[in-house]
Amino acid sequence: MKANIHPNYRPVVFIDAATGKKFLSASTVETETTAEFEGQEYPSVRMDITSDSHPFYTGKQKFTQADGAVDKFNKKFANFGFKNK
C-alpha cells in the first residue's frame, strides 16, 4: 500500500439521536466530537436513524393499504375472469 493516501481507520462511537443508544464500530469518518463508551473516550457521530429507532426494526412500521399493482391488475382484468386467490 502507498503511504499517506489512506484515511485513518479507527474505532468510532455511533449515537442514535432519537434513543441515545451507543454502539462501537470502526470507521474512517472525520469527526470533532467525542463520547465515552465502556469507560474509554472515542470519536463520536450522531445518527438520525439506526436499527434501534427505525420503524422496520422496532416493529412500529405502519402499513397503509394503497392502490398497488395487484389491485390495478384485478380491476383492469376483472371482466376477463381473472381472480386473485
Describe the structure.
There is one protein chain. By secondary structure, the chain is an alpha+beta fold. Helices cover 14% and strands 29% of the residues. It has 2 helices and 4 strands. It has helices spanning 55-58, 69-76, and strands at 10-16, 22-27, 34-37, 40-47. The protein has a 4-stranded mixed beta sheet, with no helix packed on it. A hairpin with a 5-residue loop joins strand 1 (10-16) and strand 2 (22-27). The longest helix is centred in the last third of the chain and has 8 residues, at 69-76. The model has no long low-confidence stretch (mean pLDDT 80).
List the helices and strands and how they pair.
Layout: E1 10-16, E2 22-27, E3 34-37, E4 40-47, H1 55-58, H2 69-76
Parallel strand pairs: 1-4
Antiparallel strand pairs: 1-2, 3-4
Short description:
The protein is an alpha+beta fold.
